[in-house]
Structure formats: C-alpha cells, structure tokens
From TrEMBL:
Similarity-based family: Belongs to the API5 family.
InterPro entries linked: API5, ARM-type_fold
Ranges of Basic residues composition bias in the record: 520-531
The protein's name: Apoptosis inhibitory protein 5 (API5)
Classification via Pfam families: API5
Gene name tied to this protein: LOC100193839
Gene Ontology MF, one: mRNA binding
Length: 537
C-alpha cells in the first residue's frame, strides 16, 4: 500500500509539473505550485526528490510564494536522504537568480561544505560557483562573514575560497577596480583572527590583485603594510614569554619585505624592534633570536634615514655583545653576519650617526657630525672587536675548509642513501657557514678606516638566502633555458604579477631556523581570543 501511495504521489507531482510547464499564464495555477511545495512535508522520498526539481523550475513565476518555496528547499537540504539533499542543492542556483535570496542561499550552501559525502560536497561546490557567477557580491559576503565571525565552518569556507574562488578572480571580479576593492574590504575584516597559514593565503591573494600591482600608487602598498602591521600586534606591549607573538612578528616582517621593496614604510616594525624587542633581547629564546635578526637584516635596505638613526644604536649595542674583543674559539657567526649587514645598510643612509657610536670621523657638514667631541675610546673598542671577530672567523674558516675536503670521500664511501643524505646536508650547512664567514670578513674589513665607506648595495648576499644558479650557457643559435617554475598551491607560488617578490619571501622563509606551518589556536593579547600563529612558514 505504501508503494502504491508513493507512486500515486509522484504521478500527481508529474501532472502538476506538466500543467505548469504548458500554461501560458502560470500565475493562475498558484494552487498547483502550493501543492508541489506541500509535498516536501509528505512521506514519499521520491516525491520529495521530484519536488526539489520542480520548486526551483517554477520559482520565479510565483513571487508571492517565494518565501514558502525557499523554506521548503531549506527543509529538503536538511533531510537524511542523500538523493533529496543533492537534488535540492542543484536547484539552489535557480532560486539565486532572485537577488533577495542570494545571500541566504550562499549562507546555507556554505554550511553544507562540511558534508562528508564527496558527491554532495561536489554538488555544493558547483552550486556555490553558479551562485557566485550570478551575483558575486551577495554570494561572497555571507561566506566571508563565517570567516570573520570564526564560525565552526570557517576552515571549510577558507578552503573553498582558496581552491575555487581565488583562482578565478579575473573572471569573477568585474568591473575589476570596483570588485577588487570590494573583496579587499572583505579580506581585511576576515584576517582579524586567523592562523599564520590562513593569513599567508589571504595576503598572497591580495598581492595578486591589480589594485596592488606594480603600477599601483604607493598608498596601495601602504594599505597592505597596515594590514600586516595589525596582524603583528605592533600596538601591544612585547611579552618575551609569548612565543606566538614573536613568531607572528617574525612572519609578518618577512611577509612585508616585498612590500617594503615597493615603497611602503618599514618604520613601525623597526621602531617596535628598537623600543620593545631590543630591551628584552637577552630573554628571548635562543631559537628565535636569529629569526629576529634575520628579519631586521632583510628589511634594513628599505629603512629610511630617520629609521636608520633610531635603529643604529641598538645594532651597535648588539654588535658589541656578539663581537669578541679578542680572538676566541668561536662566535655566533649568524648573529654577527646579520648585525654587520644591518649596520652597513643603516650607516650607508646616515653615516655621521656612526661618529658618536663608533668614533668615526665622517664629515657631512651637519651639527650631528659631532666632530668636536672625543669618541676615541668608542673607535678603539669597536675596531678591537672587529679585529677579534676577524681573527676568530679566519681560524674557524681554515678549520672548516680542511673539513669540507672530506665530504666527497664520505659521500662515495656511504653505504646507504640515508647516510648520503645526511652527509650532503652537513655539506650544505658547511657551505652556508663558509659563506657567512666570507661575508663577515668582507663587511668587517672596510670598518677599520676612520671614515669608512659603508656597503649600501646588493654586493653582499646573506648566506642564508637562496642563491640563484648561474644561467646555463647558450650554444650558437640556441636559446637560453627557461627558468624552472614552481607548481605549489600556496599563494607565494602564484605565477604572474608579483612573482619576483613572492620568491623573495620564499627564500626568506627558507632561512628561518625552524619550519612547520601551525594551525593551532591560542589566546592573544589585548584580552581577546586569537588563533595561534604557530610559525607561519
């Protein structure tokens, strides 16, 4: 009997659907459409599945019943039967042609991204993309709202945006300037509480937009920097025990590097380092000190003269700590390399500041030359430390050179691939260390002069930065080999606009002392909950 009733109900719905299809004035058949909507409350699974097809098909013909029809569709996607849910999901884009309901439909579809059924999730993806193509603004707003408010589905939403929406920005964001501004505002609200990898994703997307491209005004780059500054918590008091904040600051500095290159100001980051981080530097965990010094070294070429004057005393203070006054067995060559590199680039912009710090006699004709004051002791102490550092590094370099000669033999005699891999890793470490030694010697040598010439160009390549391979020589009539492309999924691997800058960030992150993307959650500053940064690299 139940089967007969189901068949009769399905047959009745088919008749209603055919009558509506053939009617010239469908508005006269509102009772038929109401009957189709009512079938959603019935017992027949097949009838509900058919109703999920028919409700969207005739939805626009009955505006007075739109709310009831929409409510019925929402009931359908909440049912246990997979076939019913999928049919309803596929019908949502037809309902979305009515602007009034787009946001609500997008919100519901966004919640369905959590489905564990592949076929259902695929249907949701297709329905959402159809909806977004129909109405970008009203579709994306509720999705970003879930991210902004930290709802349970935020991670699913972010994955959807990353995989489906962001790659189609050229197609979806039209008119370009207006829509890029619209989505930028959505992103800015969404990144207030994100993990490191999520922030990387969103910032990579923003950097790929034309409004932040190479021809964009300086104000656009400053806007990006301000987003990063907010993420780095530059208005908060530095807490040396808050590792999450330290990692957040380090990661944000590296992310800001390509934007500093394009003219945005590094002042707030550098001032924070001077006023907040340097006074607590000795209490910072050892594994984070080097990361901090690397960020400062990398950003020093983009410091202004004013920033350089403020930062130089702190750099000299740290140099005096880590450069020995006489030859010793070993030094922290990574620290010294970073500090000397930073010192040169800052001093290049404001050379006479070093007169009072290091006892030099650099004449610029400004009162800040302070040539009438005696800083002989400063000069003596600084150059003695330079000499002690150079002697220590030369001795260490000699020992390292002798040891490096044995690597080739060790690799050939290794019995397993695991042994070879370890030896090659040690060889690469030694090579980087040798580059660091050479850099220290090259940067220390000119500083013995009473009026040194500071290195302010790219003559020195930091040892921990990736060194590009020399281009392959061409044969007669041949073409140069094309550079290899990276096929990663992360935003830093995007092709096209900003690629060079993204490569810089990649190289910088490779130099960090500890890897691993974090997605853990923690509690931030200022009394509000915040997702743990976890080392964004």
């Amino acid at each position: 009997m139940a089967a007969d009733a189901d068949a009769a109900e399905v047959e009745r719905l088919y008749e209603l659907g055919e009558r509506l299809s053939s009617a010239k004035d469908k508005s006269e058949l509102a009772a038929d459409y109401e009957a189709i909507i009512a079938a959603v409350k019935g017992q027949s699974v097949k009838a509900k599945q058919l109703a999920a097809q028919l409700i969207p098909r005739f939805f626009r013909s009955f505006p007075a019943l739109a709310t009831r029809a929409m409510s019925a569709m929402f009931d359908l996607v909440d049912m246990e039967e997979l076939a019913i849910r999928i049919q309803a999901i596929r019908g949502f884009p037809l309902l979305g042609k009515d602007t009034e309901f787009v946001s609500k439909i997008a919100d519901v579809l966004g919640q369905l991204l959590t489905s564990e059924e592949n076929v259902e999730r695929d249907a949701v993806h297709k329905a959402l993309m159809s909806l977004i193509r129909e109405d970008v603004k009203n579709s994306l707003q509720p999705l970003f709202k879930h991210v902004e408010q930290g709802s349970e589905i935020r991670e699913k939403i972010i994955c959807f945006l990353r995989d489906k929406v962001f790659p189609l920005k050229a197609e979806l964001l039209k008119p370009q300037a207006e829509m890029e501004r619209f989505i930028t505002d959505l992103v800015k609200k969404s990144v207030q509480d994100v993990t490191g990898s999520e922030f990387e994703l969103f910032m990579g997307f923003l950097r790929s937009l034309s409004i932040f491209g190479d021809s964009a005004p300086r104000e656009s780059f400053q806007e990006l920097i301000e987003i990063i500054q907010a993420q780095a918590d530059l208005n908060s008091q530095f807490n040396v025990s808050d590792i999450d904040h330290i990692e957040r600051w380090i990661s944000c500095m590296y992310m800001a590097l390509p934007i500093f290159m394009r003219g945005a100001s590094a002042s707030k980051f550098l001032n924070y380092f001077v006023k907040q981080i340097v006074p607590a530097f000795e209490k910072i965990p050892e594994e984070k000190k080097l990361d901090l010094l690397k960020t400062i070294a990398s950003s020093s070429p983009y410091a202004t003269a004013q920033d350089s004057r403020q930062l130089l005393p702190s750099v000299v203070q740290l140099l005096n700590k880590y450069m020995p006054g006489k030859k010793v067995d070993d030094i922290n060559h990574n620290y010294v390399e970073c500090l000397l590199y930073t010192y040169h680039h800052l001093a290049h912009k404001t050379p006479n500041t070093t007169n009072s710090l290091c006892g030099y006699k650099i004449v610029t004709g400004q009162p800040s030359d302070r040539l009438g004051e005696d800083f002989t002791e400063h000069y003596k102490d600084f150059t003695e430390r330079l000499t002690g550092t150079e002697e220590t590094v030369r001795a260490a370099s000699k020992r390292l050179t002798q040891g490096m000669a044995d690597f080739s033999k060790a690799i050939s005699s290794a019995k397993t691939e695991e042994e070879k891999t370890k030896i090659k890793g040690d060889q690469q470490t030694s090579t980087r260390t040798m580059r660091s030694y050479n850099n220290i010697l090259a940067m220390a040598q000119p500083l013995h002069s009473k009026s040194p010439l500071f290195i302010g160009d790219k003559k020195i390549a930091l040892s921990w930065m990736e060194h590009p391979k020399k281009p392959t020589a061409t044969t007669a009539g041949g073409k140069r080999s094309q550079p290899a492309t990276t096929n990663g999924n992360g935003p830093a691997n995007k092709k096209g606009r900003g690629g060079m800058h993204n490569q810089l960030v990649n190289r910088a992150f490779e130099g960090l002392s500890r890897g691993g993307r974090g997605t853990g959650r923690g509690r931030g500053r200022g009394g509000r909950g915040r997702r743990g940064w976890g080392g964004y690299r």
